[in-house]
Amino acid sequence: MSQLNNDILFLIFEELQDDSKSLFSCLLVNRIWCKNAIPILWMNPWRYSINYRNKSYLFAIIASYLPNDIKKFLLSQGIKFCQISKPLLFNYLSFCESFNVNILNEVIISSGTTLDYNQFILQEEFYNVLISTSPMLNYLDIRSISQQIFHFPEVKARLETLYELICDTSIGSVYLYGLARICKNIQKLGIINNTIKVNHGVAKLIEMQEDLKIFEWEDDFEEDYFIDDPYEETLLALEKKADNLNHFKIFFQHVDYEHTVLQEVLPKFYKLKTLIIVDDFIYYFTHQLRMFYIEILCVDFISINTASGIIENSGGHLKKLLLFKLYDYMFETNFNKDSLDYIHKICEHCPSIEFLSLAFPSTKKHFTEFEKLLKVCQNLKSLFINIFNINEFINKVETKNALKIGEELLKLLIRSAPTNLREIRFFNYFRFSLQTLEEFFKQWRGRPALSVLTSDRIYREEDYINLINKYKNEGVIKDFRFVLKDEIY
């Protein structure tokens, strides 16, 4: 294994680029492995789930790139940092293609610098050295930035090729105007709207892009009112990019359900491949979704009947269909009939579906149709499922009936689950007895390891934990744990 050539090693390490523990382990195998892993680690060193405030070595490495006169100035301001006595083994920053303001600020805090002025100086110098040393920047996250980076000497050459930008509206319109003058090739733009004032720079930034393909907007504030409409100008700018836009994700906290601009603009995005709308307002625009030929649809709430209509018109393109509020469907007037029709539509029009949300009652007919779906949809990788009986749900689910439903479901999965299935997420009350669960694990041997998420606390009990850990150690399951409902969604 240690004798693999560089090209193969690079491809392997690219697959591990989100797994810092594995990549760090690869550094220790030999010099060749280390040489190939370092560029992957440093391509985006800010992506990992680690405590950056505890990574003083990162601070020391970046500080080592500062010119001597800057170092002397920082020392004169009482800013201390560890001097690296030996030359660095690699030119680490030359591999870096990303820039994350918040993570860099965490690294600066790791130096022990507490004064606001000193932190400001370090931020400016670190941002400058990263931009000037990196051969190109593909990814930029500048949420909460205060430094005017577009005035740095090398910034124009670096940002002309920027692929992805994430920013928030608190940095002001003028700041975004400055970026709009330089960045013309952004393909993925993420906006965090954290003010109640309209940021006109967002629309200008969108307007200046030549090939914008991915747009995401998320409201993130506590106030419940706006001075002006925060969405209209942005939506009209996006309308002009409709021919290129293929991914659209929005979370509007305070949209007007009679919002004329949204009603006019949304149908223009008919070329979308991905539509993610995390808000109940989509309920008022569902008739427009039937015109979309999309591959990925994730919405906070639409009726099962509307979802069936979208499936029927999808032309077989749907790969992912996630309906977040599965627990609400049981209250729909024709839930039993519509949920059965929903399953039929998936079988007929979406045999290639990979990620799927399902909600239906625990009738024999629904279980029979669900099993047919599993046999037809052989590409299914992840299943989000809620099976319930209305009377049982209202009475908090009778344990005996719940265990019976759970046993029937697991037997069905053993018989008919597609070989590609890697994950199941159970909503609400899903109870499996220890005996039933162990039999399921035994029968699952020889298949790809399965991940299971559930919102039932029973699986935190000691007997269940011991059973789950046993089959984790055998590699039968990858994960099986209790999480809050929001995590399942």
TrEMBL record:
It comes from the Eukaryota. This is F-box domain-containing protein.
